[in-house]
Amino acid sequence: MQASAAWQPSTQVVWRNLDVLSQAQPLLVMNPPELAGWAELNESVPCLFFSQDYRVSQAFRQQGLEIEFAVLPSPEQWQMAEAVLLFWPKAKELAQWLLGLLTSLPRELPIWVVGEHQAGVKSTPKLVEALGGSCYKQDNARRCSLFQLELPVAQPFSLEEYWRLDAWQLADQSLQVARLPGVFSEQSLDKGSQLLLDHLFLPQQGRVLDFGCGAGVLGAYLKTKCPSAEVVMLDVSALALEASKRTLAANQLDATVLASDAWSGVGGRFDFILSNPPFHTGIHTDYAPALALISQAQAHLNPGGVLQLVANSHLPYLEWLRQHFSKVQVDAETSQFRIYRAWR
Ligand SMILES: C[S@@+](CC[C@H](N)C(=O)[O-])C[C@H]1O[C@@H](n2cnc3c(N)ncnc32)[C@H](O)[C@@H]1O
Fold first, then answer.
1. What is the pLDDT along the chain (344 residues), one digit of tens a residue?
2. How many A from CA of 184 to the centre of ligand 1?
3. Phi, then psi, of 198 in degrees rounded to 5
4. Pick from 100, 116, 216, 294: most CB atoms within 10 A?
């Protein structure tokens, strides 16, 4: 099978090296960035798929491919794998814990890491060395590298060591926030989210959606201020969903947390939708979720319902909002961010 130039560069590099990568089977593919080619490949090289991204998982399932969507691969996948291919994530700290996880494989297997140079894959040798392993470069093309790793195996691994729970000041409220490397605003509250919290519309009741909830700061704050509201929180990332659940639990708050690629996993209408929408997928700019939020929000709002969001001022959201809503206002503005509000 030929790699397509339309595929992501790291996927193209995998396809150039299929003969080596497919020597041990099944190959556990962790966090593939896209569906590209896997369905065809799976017919000749049995693979196990694992993803922390709901969008990718849905694409696989729509093609009839089994994939686990979770924070960690299941013990069954871990036992069954005869080789592992890890796609390098955007955040170095997430890469660090994923590599740590690989040291808990039950036995020695071929382990591969592939990723883009601009995402930091070149730090693989250093991180692997810190874990007591070694690696060599198998390929270097399309501004990507593919490494083969030798890691100590059967090591204890506990994800709990990477979770943090800290009190953060959210506007006028102190709340416990659960954080994990790989979840948005892992280090500190995002300045855009902070501005939104400072100007947040607070409906005293009704159904509220936190679109792209990350660690759950917006939804949890709203639920604290408006206990009668029914809060729903969605995100595409398994790590974000787990962080949101932990944030809610730590503050004794009750809300529904849903896996969803934009609107794909959510039903019914809302009285208020709030968001600090993403404009990146991995390291690449991606306006699709924000555009889906704005262009389809009307269909998910009750009459009189409100959409409020924060965005970097340079993003064309005001124009998009005006295309889809007859009433739009700017609630607040700094040199970097704007808070928009629109009414159905
Ligand atoms: C800018 S962060 C905001 C997180 C959180 N609301 C906050 O204010 O800290 C955007 C969030 O959207 C999520 N996201 C990205 N693409 C998405 C999609 N297609 N559907 C749903 N959520 C998505 C990301 O995982 C991330 O948690």
1. 778 888 999 999 999 999 999 999 999 999 999 888 888 888 888 999 999 999 999 999 999 999 999 999 999 999 999 999 999 998 889 999 999 999 999 999 999 999 999 999 999 999 999 999 999 999 999 999 999 999 999 999 999 999 999 999 999 999 999 999 999 988 899 999 999 999 999 998 999 999 999 999 999 999 999 999 999 999 999 999 999 999 999 999 999 999 999 999 999 999 999 999 998 776 677 888 999 999 999 999 999 999 999 999 999 999 999 999 999 999 999 999 999 999 99
2. 7
3. -65, -25
4. 216
The first and second tokens of residue 146, run together, are 């593919």
Predicted TM-score of the model (pTM): 0.96
Number of other CB atoms surrounding residue 285 within 10 Å: 7
Pocket around ligand 1 at a 6 A CB cut-off? 55, 184-185, 190, 193, 212-215, 217-218, 234-237, 240, 260-262, 276, 278, 289
Strand 164-170 and strand 83-87: pairing? unpaired
